Amino acid sequence: MAKAETFQDLSLTPAGEGQELRSWLYSELRTAILDGRLRRGARMPSTRSLAKQYSLSRGTVTAAFDSLHNEGYIAALVGSGTYVAFELPDDSLAGPTAAVTPAQPSRAALSTRGNAAIGGVRLLPPSHSLGRAFRPYEPAIDLFPVALWSRVAGRVLRKAPRSLYGQGDACGYLPLRKAIAEYVGAARGVHCEPGQVIVTSGAQQALDLAARMLMDPGDAVWMEDPGYPGAIFALRAAGAQIIPIGVDEEGLDVQEARREAPRAKLAYVTPANQFPLGGTMSPARRWALLDWASHQNAWIIEDEYDAEYRYSGRPIPALQSLDRSGCVIYVGTFTKMLFNSLRLGFMVVPERVAGAFAASRTILDRHPPTLDQAILAEFILDGHFGHHVRRMRQTYGRRMKVLTEAAGLRLGGKLNVEEADSGMRTVAWIKTGQKDRSVAERARSQGLELAALSEFRLTHAREDALILGFAGCTGAELRRGVDVLAHVMDGESEPQARVMAME
Q1: Best CA proximity match to 21, nearest among 49, 56, 71
Q2: pLDDT higher than 70, residue 3
Q3: Cβ-based neighbour number of residue 478 at 10 Å
Q4: 443: domain CATH number?
């Protein structure tokens, strides 16, 4: 009999006055087994612990156990313990004519707002494998310095004061907020003090928090089209009216936006690396956007999820670095720079609203996990974070070259794979007239993980294209993915059982 669970304590109804303890305990344990509180295969509490818990003699408990054992409710395994039987004697008594009155199914429904908020949301699968071509949301987990992270974590946990195991700061662990403020100031030109930094559970929670705090139901928001679905979902959940705005080589078209909704309450942009097209917002568009927000008393959410990875030209400072009126909410994340399961991001808010955002952060989940933040802070302050980002920038640049070169050899005339200037993914324009969703579906059936550009489009027409991630894939896996994709576009199939090649 395999062990399913272990119970340390068991909640039983107290014995009635004058009730024999052995029969009371037998009846209570039998009832717990029959109603499923002690499930089939679960390990029973030991006679010693049960006697201590209910102030019984061990002989009383043993007698009750013997009765249950003799009747087939429990079974003892030598050297292992006592377990609830998988087949109970009462099973044979439940005949086909037994009258069972079914419970009335509840008709309680989700709210209209709740249903609207989850419309179109697709759950990302857990990572059962690493580096699958062309997963667009994953960094190079294969190259993350796990041993180094473990040493830092061990040192932090050994030296951590007991206060780190108590209630945390709603805004985040102060040493981490100081490290973030210093880093974004040096690397991205962001003007902020630690008091303006709020640590979140990834960028998605930052977007949700900003939408809750900045939008009223019905408020209009400029949204890049095509754009990031996670931002759309967060804004819709807050009741915002999404106004799709076209994107060209200079970024979000501010003139179009002012024509469509001049009194919008907020604009969401990805100026350093537009999602999903990959362009950089021009200086003229940045100033125009800031001018509109300043005059309309509107907000701008600047999402810089992977701005550190730039492969050509000089790094461009954040939009927030140009903000003189205090209208930009700057959002960043460590999940794309380190590893997905870290789930730590941050936002930089104007000082005048920092207290309000901290209060709202408390409503969501009180505070981010303090020990994880302490480990990350140490990792940054020791210089490991900066070294890792620089190393990944070089690695991703090489992997992007592998992808474009392999595509040029194998997919020439079918796909035009752009050489990305920054980021962790690129756009592959379809030249065969095939629809991107059809190609993407067939590619997924062959084990590739990619997206169709049209999946990110709201109203503005675009050529058909695929979104191909390269950062988390080895060179060998990228070449394999290109080969499979070529077969897909030719209408052929590749065996899914092929082993993923590794560098």
Answers
A1: 56
A2: no
A3: 27
A4: 3.90.1150.10
Which strands sit side by side in the sheet containing 451-452, from one edge to the other? 415-417, 425-430, 465-469, 451-452
Token pair listed for 348: 């930089």
Sign for the pseudo-dihedral over CA of 429, 433, 434, 436: positive
Q: Are residues 174 and 311 in the same domain?
A: yes
Q: Exposed, middle or buried: residue 430 (CB in 10 Å: 0-12, 13-18, 19+)?
A: buried
Q: Return the C-alpha torsion angle 276, 280, 284, 287, nearest 10.
A: 80
Q: Is residue 219 part of a domain?
A: yes
Mind listing the pLDDT tens digit for each residue in 20-58?
888 888 888 888 888 888 888 888 888 888 888 888 899
Strand partners, 239: none
Nearest in space to 403 (alpha carbons), one of 471, 310, 338, 496: 471
Q: Are strands 220-225 and 266-269 parallel, antiparallel or unpaired?
A: parallel
Cα 379 to its chain centre, rounded Å, is 21
Mean pLDDT of 230-236: 93
Residue where one domain finishes, among candidates 329, 348, 382: 382
CA 369 – CA 165 distance, rounded (Å): 9
- Averaged pLDDT, 376-403: 94
Residues whose CB is less than 8 angstroms from the CB of residue 214 and which lie 6 or more positions away in sequence, other chains included:
265, 266, 299, 301, 329
d(CA 60, CA 58): 5
Residue among 412, 31, 349 nearest 194 (CA):
349
Q: How many domains does the chain have?
A: 3
- Tokens representing 216 are 């009223």
Using the structure block, give the residue that is written with the tokens 């979000």.
Answer: 252
The range of the structural domain enclosing residue 422 comes to 392-489
Q: What is the CATH number of the domain that holds 290?
A: 3.40.640.10
- Shared domain for 81 and 189, answered yes or no, is no
